[in-house]
Each structure stands twice: as C-alpha cells, then as structure tokens.
Design the sequence.
C-alpha cells in the first residue's frame, strides 16, 4: 500500500481551517501547549504517518518522538506501536506539515456498526473555545475532514486505532456532538 501517497492526499484534503484564519491565534494555541507545572503533552500519530510524511521532513526538527506499544500504553493490541510526539515549540509549528490529529481537532473519527462519524468528545484535555461557537465553523472544514478520515480508515491499522478509540469513547459515554455522513455531505 502506498502510505506516503495516501497521507499526502489526506494532508492536502485536510489543509483547511475550522474558522477563517488560524484558530490557534484566537486562543493563544491552547490545544498545542503545556501549562506551568503540567507534564509535557503530545499527540499520537496515525499508523505510518511518521514514516511516510514526517520522519524526513522539516517538521521533525522540533519534535521529540517516542514509540509506544500496547504493553505499556493504552493503544490497540493489534497495532504493534504508535509514534507519540512532543512538539518543542508550539508557536513554531509548520502548519502545512501538522499531523492528522492537529488538522482534525476538535473532531475525532468515530466508528459504530461499520459507519464513520465525526464526533467531539465531552471530556477534553484542552476544551477548545470554538466548540460552543458552531456558527463560526466552516462547512468546508467538516466535509474535508470527514473525506480525509474516509481515506485513512482504508488503512487497516488506522481503522483499528479508530475502532479502539471509538469503543472507549462509546463505553465512557464521551460524545458531545456526533455527525454522520448524511449530516456532513448534504
């Protein structure tokens, strides 16, 4: 499978903003920062994302990268490992190379009965200030994020991660907003 080609296509498709302009400027990059006294936070990359796009890119210069396995971390047991990254300079992020999780925030992919949804979780680490301002959201953002996830779940390991996270989210009743394909692609 041509993972690099898939990720390049999806990065381009998802290269759109939730609102007009850089939403990070509204909240001082709230979702990208660690606050005084907190443990440095990072994000998981999707399977093959690091190897296909980020490893040999300019983005990699500001990263600390770890490989997490299901033996030590809460990731699917049928996915050997996931790369976990820490950004060293949240204000110096190369937006054109930001990872999938950053591109789609505050939405998460969610699978139920084989169907893909976009959801926003009730309990979030960062509590995006735009969640309660849906009137500012761009429809184009939601459509393109959804279409990008449709491409990505064609990769078996990505689908496994999405299904694993979805089960936990469902079991914990942690869904605030849930959009189906018919809600998005009208």
Sequence:
């Amino acid at each position: 499978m041509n993972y690099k080609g898939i990720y390049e296509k999806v990065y381009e498709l998802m290269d759109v903003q939730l609102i007009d302009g850089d939403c990070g400027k509204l909240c001082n990059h709230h979702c990208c920062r660690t606050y005084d006294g907190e443990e440095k936070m990072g994000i998981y990359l999707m399977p093959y994302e690091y190897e296909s796009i980020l490893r040999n890119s300019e983005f990699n210069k500001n990263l600390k990268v770890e490989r997490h396995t299901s033996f030590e971390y809460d990731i699917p047991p049928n996915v050997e490992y996931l790369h976990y990254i820490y950004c060293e300079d949240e204000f110096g992020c190369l937006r054109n190379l930001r990872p999938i999780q950053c591109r789609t925030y505050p939405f998460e992919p969610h699978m139920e009965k084989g169907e893909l949804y976009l959801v926003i979780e009730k309990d979030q680490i960062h509590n995006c200030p735009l969640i309660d301002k849906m009137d500012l959201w761009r429809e184009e953002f939601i459509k393109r994020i959804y279409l990008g996830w449709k491409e990505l779940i064609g990769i078996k390991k990505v689908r496994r991660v999405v299904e694993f996270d979805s089960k936990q989210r469902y079991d914990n009743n942690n869904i605030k907003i849930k959009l189906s394909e018919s809600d998005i692609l009208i």
Q: What stands out?
A: Strands lie at 43-44, 63-68, 82-87, 108-112, 115-120, 177-179. The chain is about 30% helix and 15% strand. The chain has a mean pLDDT of 84. The longest strand covers residues 63-68.
